[in-house]
Amino acid sequence: MGNTSSKEPGFRESVNLMFDRAVRHMNLSEGLVEKIKVANSTYTVRFGVKLRGDIRTFTGYRSVHSEHSEPVKGGIRYALSVNQNEVEALAALMTYKCALVEVPFGGSKGGLCIDPREWDQDELERITRRFAFELIKRDLINPSQNVPAPDMGTGEQEMAWIADQYHRMNTTDIDARACVTGKPLNAGGIRGRVEATGRGVQYAIRDFFRHPDDLEVAGLSKGMAGKRVIVQGLGNVGYHAAKFMQEEDECLITAVIERDGAIINEKGLDVETLFAHIKEHGGVAKYPHGKYEKDGSKVLEMECDILIPAALESVINLENADRIKTKLICEAANGPITAGGNEILRDKGVVIIPDMFANAGGVTVSYFEWVKNLSHIRFGRMQRRQEEARQEMVIEALEKMTGKSFPNELRGAFVSGADELTLVRSGLDDTMRGAYADMRQLWLDKRKDDKEMDLRTAAFMISIQRVADSYRALGL
Ligand code: NAD
């Protein structure tokens, strides 16, 4: 957690304050507002696992924020800082995120108080299976009710154990694999899921750069090439976002902040070799192609064009928001800016692409994985070769009609039918563009009369309205 001041409300209160800010612009009954805002339930479990010759007790949570649409969806986090407030705040954000990007899920989140680096693979497997057992027997993991995914400290391996545990406890459930997403391919995963959240962050920033009006508000010039980017947290989300933006958009990654400090290079860091260095040495220190700074929080305040916090919540807050020197912040992490920090930044003219949109790539591709698991067939399997045969026919017809041959350099791309990865990327891109269009339209419309309107408030307004509409349709 960031160095928040004692005046600062906690993470859950911060999310609620942002929610309240949006609701003030809407016309909803007090009762309905309260219903949408509160977490429906939070389950706390304490379980023991025999490890290293003794019984160790672990505490875990699964919070369900809103069941207006089921199953509910949200990752499972492994970190020592996990607590009920955090899990509830994250579950609420999942509700709004799913509504914003129109994936048909309610919001949920889980967490286990554990530092995964303290345990070896076998131990982690036993702990994960035991935690999963506790959640499965209460339907808090279930293909039609509650579907977890990876989050901080968890990844494909934990999801594979969870899926297998569910299967062992529900041997006749033909849809067992849909009980969790973010699985490895050979356990029912989907191509493009591991990179999905980082890819979504890239698409979110690309969307922003597609609109000159939006760039003008932030005071940024056109084009992502050459823009200086600082990333906090080179984990799953931060690594993929930084890698794609460097390789495909020609951004300069001028600093990366990790647990043990930061590494700076104004000419641009090579994300791939830095990532390999972190994997090998456990941190950024001693990376040879940049200047090391032990105090990572200082680097968060360095000048850049785009700042991407991709690690923890509340890292930009009342204490340091005034010193942040960027034009655009893309919230890859959940809740990296507190409600108070948000106000200071907005008044300074910094534009914030809010978490509920910026990191929605993960849940979007999780949705595709869930659909794949329920349909029991890989996307593209039926139509790919048929599409290719049609394209070959088009080429043949064009050549016959014109007497000229089709350009060889275009042939491959023109003919090739869409495989699963292509379809996943297309679906993700479409989802991000659609949500951004909705959000920016409301933002720019409302900004004409209200300079305090920001993208986050617009995003909250859209989501809350959608959840309210579905509660109304249910007769609540
Ligand atoms: P991760 O565990 O893969 O990576 C987190 C990274 O942050 C690690 O490299 C870690 O060393 C670094 N870190 C930890 N403490 C730090 C500190 N104090 N300063 C700087 N760096 C620090 O986690 P992730 O899956 O990439 O998740 C990161 C954020 O993105 C979380 O807020 C998570 O909720 C959010 N998110 C993740 C997904 C997903 O699909 N994984 C989806 C949506 C949102």
Describe the protein.
- By secondary structure, the chain is an alpha/beta fold.
- The chain contains 17 helices and 12 strands.
- A 7-stranded mixed β-sheet has the order 9-8-7-6-10-11-12, with helices on both faces. It has a 5-stranded mixed β-sheet with strand order 1-2-4-3-5.
- β3, α3 and β4 (106-112) form a beta-alpha-beta unit.
- The chain starts with 10 loop residues before the first helix and ends with a helix.
- The model has no long low-confidence stretch (mean pLDDT 96).
- The structure holds nicotinamide-adenine-dinucleotide.
- The site of nicotinamide-adenine-dinucleotide has 24 residues, from α8 and β7.
- Nicotinamide-adenine-dinucleotide (NAD) is lined by residues 150-153, 197, 232-238, 257-259, 296, 310-312, 332-334, 359, 362.
CATH T-level fold name of the largest domain: Rossmann fold
N/C terminus separation? 37 Å
In which range does the helix fraction lie? 40-55%
Uncertain regions spanning at least 5 consecutive residues: none
Which distinct ligands sit in these coordinates? nicotinamide-adenine-dinucleotide
Mean pLDDT: 96
Instruction: Please indicate the count of domains.
Output: 2
What fraction of the residues are assigned to beta strands by DSSP?
15-25%
What are the salient characteristics of this protein?
476 residues, alpha/beta, Rossmann fold, 2 domains, five-stranded mixed sheet, 12 strands, globular, binds nicotinamide-adenine-dinucleotide
Short characterization:
The protein is of the alpha/beta class. Helices cover 47% and strands 15% of the residues. It is globular.
